[in-house]
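Annex B. Sample input.
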Amino acid sequence: MNILLALLIGVLFGAAIYMILRRSIIKLIIGLMLLSYAANLLIFAVAGVQRAKVPLIPEGASEVAQSVADPLPQALVLTAIVIGFGVMAFTIVLIQQLYQQSGIEDSDELKTTDH
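Annex B, continued. Sample output.
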């Protein structure tokens, strides 16, 4: 399971870098999305993927008796998803404005954005 997850993360990072380095601005957006997904999976993989109970201490006890899931990676990934969505929305709006002003979708043909 861990090897499969590591391979998936590696493929996602590789595909993201490949798409970011392409000439098309649309492929840049797809690459940024793949990079976000790969980073979220990496956080989960580093924290250790396991199914466990909720980390609640029963009334009258001083500690948890069984193994529990770590809530920190889940909170980090949830925060990363929200931040990634905001960055992606900003990037899409920025690229839309760039295309409306210049009419160019290829990043190599783009000389300047001043009009």
